[in-house]
Structure prediction request, 318 residues.
Amino acid sequence: MLTKKYTCVKVDQRKDGITFVIFNRPEKRNAMSPTFHIEMMDVLNELEIDPDTKVVVLTGAGTAYSAGQDLKEYFREGDKNPSVRAAASAASRWRSDKLWLYSKPTIAMVNGYCIGGAFTHCICSDFAVAANEAIFSLSEVNWGILPGGMVSKMVSDTLSARNAMFYACTGRTFNGKKAAEIGLVNYAVPLKSLKKEVVKLARELMEKNPNVLRGTKHAIRATQNMDWMAAGDYLAAKGAEIKQRDAARNHDAYSEGIRQFIDEKAYKPVFSPYHGAASGKPPAKLPSTRKKKAAAASAVTRSTSSGPARSSSGGKKV
Ligand code: COA
Prediction:
């Protein structure tokens, strides 16, 4: 449990393992100041090793998710004070490198304005869910810079070439629905159900084996820029790492997942994770889909043998 207090960030840790990290400068539309970046890096470092946090959700207080870099404190004042700027710039990598390879699943819950530099942490979170009403804009072109940091790169990696060029060069605003349509977020929902939908997604992720989930998200990230040979080697090594991490908690996802499906008929991988995937402790008594199937089959037999014959012949013997 995180006990530190911050000035620009609020941390709301729920008992179920979902931790909300709330950008908390609503009066400045959650613009990112140097202090904000330093605090965010610290919060993410702490939560990455916090046993009570299984999924991290990033969101904003008030009407904004984040209005991007703080034009006054990060840019103008930072230009006058290179050491402050250097510290802020290093800490601002919470949005890119840190999130990109974070050990736990992260979800950007885009509740309102998502502007300029805020695209970085929207894109680098593993998942993003927006309110239909959220407003996105690459506003840089309107106030005099190109989308810097890593924004241009992230946007051109994530959107189609046409959309990246269009939104970067016009600065035009678009809403959450459009963000989903162009692949900037996974989906958009009405603001009033945004939190409920995000919690639903977080819970789904928390049912998985966390080591398998970690390896999978790293694999999707890392192989993007690899050739076939390198990707093959990376994935083999990553698979071995999952086994090693699971062994540290006396577990083996791979063998257990196969056993519960093939031998025990206890679940179907297409519809759910195996039992005990999250904790690494499968229950001693597993439910059986085979029994359910057998029961369903015998119920059909009972109803057709003991009751009146129901057939297309109207019950008459043919
Ligand atoms: N940097 C610094 N301050 C910012 C800011 C930013 N990125 N975004 C908003 N603020 C400040 C405003 O200056 C204002 O401060 P004040 O109360 O001291 O005057 C306060 O936050 C509220 O902003 P306001 O413009 O009055 O709110 P709004 O709800 O009417 O509009 C926006 C919200 C986001 C549309 C508008 O603030 C805006 O265009 N911000 C610039 C965002 C931007 O271009 N960011 C790119 C950075 S890379």
